[in-house]
From TrEMBL, chains A, B:
Subunit structure: Heterotetramer of two alpha and two beta chains.
Membrane-spanning segments: none
One term of GO molecular function: L-glutamate N-acetyltransferase activity, acting on acetyl-L-ornithine as donor
PANTHER family cross-referenced by the UniProt entry: ARGININE BIOSYNTHESIS BIFUNCTIONAL PROTEIN ARGJ, ARGININE BIOSYNTHESIS BIFUNCTIONAL PROTEIN ARGJ, MITOCHONDRIAL
Pathway assigned to this chain's UniProt record: Amino-acid biosynthesis; L-arginine biosynthesis; N(2)-acetyl-L-ornithine from L-glutamate: step 1/4; Amino-acid biosynthesis; L-arginine biosynthesis; L-ornithine and N-acetyl-L-glutamate from L-glutamate and N(2)-acetyl-L-ornithine (cyclic): step 1/1
Family: Belongs to the ArgJ family.
Claim: Amino-acid biosynthesis is one of the keywords in the record: yes
Subcellular location field: Cytoplasm
Annotated protein name in UniProt: Arginine biosynthesis bifunctional protein ArgJ
Record Pfam families: ArgJ
CDD domains, alphabetized: OAT
Binding site for substrate: T148, K174, T185, E269, N392, T397
Organism: Anatilimnocola aggregata
One GO cellular component term: cytoplasm
């Protein structure tokens, strides 16, 4: 995939010194010299990190020029000093590119409860500002700079024709653990050269989130730092999008966010399968999403997929405790195209064939059907592997 | 511990042939020749097993004489045929001890979605009825007959003086996986020779459950088969308990249920730690329980304890997404007596010392303190180990 970076932004990712390995980027800087409209969606955790409170107070905005991100330290549960450090990080980044500190946003991700190493933050800001670019290499360096336990960088790009102009959209995100809606534990930045008002930017971002980043989990633990930003430079030209033009942009943004969001459980810590859960026949979308999320967060379902075990009773019983009323005699289940359960009763199937179908594919598709209505839901999660446990039993020690 | 079995009951556990290993009991029969008052508490899963529906329709009752339990097959998600099999199992067990089939209750536990092997059920009922006893050995055989993936049998006994008489209480339960309130995935039977009306039996059982079996989890997956029965033979003599006598019995029953319930996460599949979570300073008990349960069900908290990793950010952040409002600046955390977090900020501590304190004890005590009120909550869970994943990735295949 080649990425065309939206006009109006320059960026870079560098090693400032927070991560131990000198080849790993840990500081990302994005600069929008003419100012961008900015919107944000944040964790709903009561215990939120300093940069979440900081950005929340500054978005939506009509004039954001700098986004500074560090990985390797979440600046969460760090009290008053954490908030001062966050403010100083915004000042350092803005100063490095000659902007007013009031126009900067900050994101942090990594270990909780450790104070930010401000000398390394300062170093990162200085180094990153030295060679900002609008090319694909700069974009990918920026995407690597926000990674923590990720095995691969996560990016997406789209072009969409709106109101006679080509609008570019490019996004990056990180996240592999502590992932549970709303929001998943992750940082994500969507850049576009579309012209958007702050209100429209906030509205389209929220709608896209509900279909994407709020439909994924790894282990369902909601993070302290989740942040999704949309920056719109307006460099594609024209008046701020409205009506059907805004709707066309909304569709492209949602589509891009879904592609980006799925990369997170696909890279779930230790994961060997990306599990997609499709729910049909519910009374409301909320009901369908609630069932999808409950199935996704069942450790028994996730371990069964890891073991390629067609233990469908775990899937059906998880639906049963989702808190959504339904007729058990109307339930059906199809896994990777194999029907295992129909009208509330088992369908005879060859366990070896279904097990092989799970084992041989990176994606496992679970389709649960109900007879309550016509609403549907979707959710994505990772399987639960011994590698997840090994990894998480020994994170800080 | 020596167990004095309440008067009025005889029992046994035998190998009927459902389990592959001939030395493992898989059928338990309890007989109360003069009839017992019976109460039940059941899974809230919409997808419930045949015996759950069967028992639910027969309790509370003033005249239950037979309880038949099989392990190795849950008779869940088995449709119409499953309900017929359940009825037939009740008939076989009642006939084996010369009772009317209307006085029998049934419990099943094991794999979901496989029809009951009725020849083996018939064999179990016949063999068990041949030598029923009121002694400790018979009670322990009965307790083994309900086990599935349990590493050890789970029993409890109490004596309490009420209204000038000694009342005996003895209980057994099983459960090690698919454990999430309400109820935990488990079967439990409490026997007593106290005289109780059906209404009083149901009331004390419900109250005891809320303090015990509804306060435990292994992985939070609510089962299709959870059943807790209380049988009261009245053999201790006297009128049905009321007022302060009933309250004294209630206290003993709750205490016994808590001791029994804790044995389940202590035997959680692959578990190396029993985690006890204590919450103080909330506005209501419901709020405290909601926070306790959310912390208990965090895979990140459970893996941290498995790895003896004092990663307190995971505990505090789990509380933050419990859905209960609180002031983050008032939160404190103590793990195994070591203060790690106070008034919303980290307390310096020696990571090696705290890690050693977790590693060296089977029990990990997590105490989270809030400043909202005076309500408290308690919850027990197991840690999350690679052995849990290994075990559950390969259960049916």
């Amino acid at each position: 995939m080649s990425i065309e970076v939206p006009a109006g932004f320059v960026m870079n990712g560098v090693h400032g010194g927070i991560k131990k390995v000198a080849t790993k980027e840990d500081f990302t800087l994005i600069h929008c010299p003419k100012g961008a409209t900015a919107a944000g969606v944040y964790t709903q955790n009561l215990v939120f990190a300093a940069p979440v409170g900081f950005d929340r107070s500054r978005t939506p905005s009509a004039n954001i020029r700098v986004v500074a991100v560090n990985s390797g330290n979440a600046n969460a549960c760090t009290g008053e000093r954490g908030m001062n450090d966050c403010r100083e990080m915004a000042r350092l980044a803005a100063t490095a590119v000659g902007e007013n500190e009031q126009t900067a946003l900050v994101m942090s991700t990594g270990v909780i409860g450790v104070f930010l190493p401000m000398d390394k933050i300062a170093n990162g800001a200085k180094l990153a500002a030295e060679k900002l670019g609008n090319d694909e290499a700069s974009f990918l360096a920026a995407a690597r700079g926000i990674m923590t336990t990720d095995q691969f960088h996560k990016v997406v790009a789209r072009q969409v024709n709106v109101a006679g102009r080509t609008i570019r959209l490019a996004g990056m995100c990180k996240g592999a653990g502590m992932i549970g809606p709303h929001m998943a534990t992750m940082l994500a930045i969507m850049l576009t050269d579309a012209p958007l008002t702050p209100a429209a930017a906030q509205q389209v971002l929220k709608a896209a989130t509900d279909e994407s980043f709020n439909c994924i989990s790894v282990e369902g633990h909601m993070s302290t730092n989740d942040t999704l930003l949309l920056l719109a430079s307006g460099a594609a030209g024209g008046e701020p999008l409205t009506g059907s033009d805004l709707a066309a942009f909304q569709a492209a943004l949602t589509d891009a966010c879904i592609e980006l969001a799925q990369q997170i459980p696909d890279d779930g810590e230790g994961a060997s399968h990306l599990i997609g859960i499709e729910i049909t026949g519910c009374q409301t979308r909320d009901a369908a999403q609630q069932i999808a999320k409950t199935v996704a967060n069942s450790a028994l379902v996730k371990t069964a997929v890891a073991g390629a075990d067609p233990n469908w009773g775990r899937i059906v019983s998880a639906a049963g405790y989702a808190g959504v009323p339904f007729n058990p005699d109307g339930v059906g289940l199809i896994v990777n195209g194999h029907e295992l359960y129909r009208a509330g009763a088992p369908v005879p199937f060859d366990a070896k064939t279904v097990s092989a179908a799970i084992k041989s594919e990176r994606k496992t598709h679970i389709k649960l059907t109900f007879t309550e209505g016509s609403a549907v839901g979707r959710f994505w999660t990772s399987d639960l592997n011994v590698n997840y446990v090994r990894f998480n039993a020994d994170y800080t020690t």
